[in-house]
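Example record

One chain of 100 residues, shown exactly as stored in the release files.
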Amino acid sequence: MSSIEIIIQTTQAIAANPSDAAAYKTRALTLCQMQQYAEAQKDLDTLIDTLHTDDAEVYQLRGSLRMEQGDKIGALSDMRKALDLNPELLQKLNGEFKNQ
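Predicted structure tokens for this chain:
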């Protein structure tokens, strides 16, 4: 399935059920792959701020996007939450922020 098809499918799923966390996450990941970071962050914000997800990967991804945008405080907050939810992420995050 192409990225555009995934975006269409997940957008339809969200329209049908605005609480569909899986659809938001899939769309955010696809948007990141398409380098549409602002749109991806909107979905991640919805997952975190509105749907109150406890998915460490969502926090880690938003933290990475925030770091890329220069929001180091926001990135740190998200990464801390990701680590609280999944301490095994430390190994991955260590390398990701080494050169920042």
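Notes: The mean pLDDT is 92.
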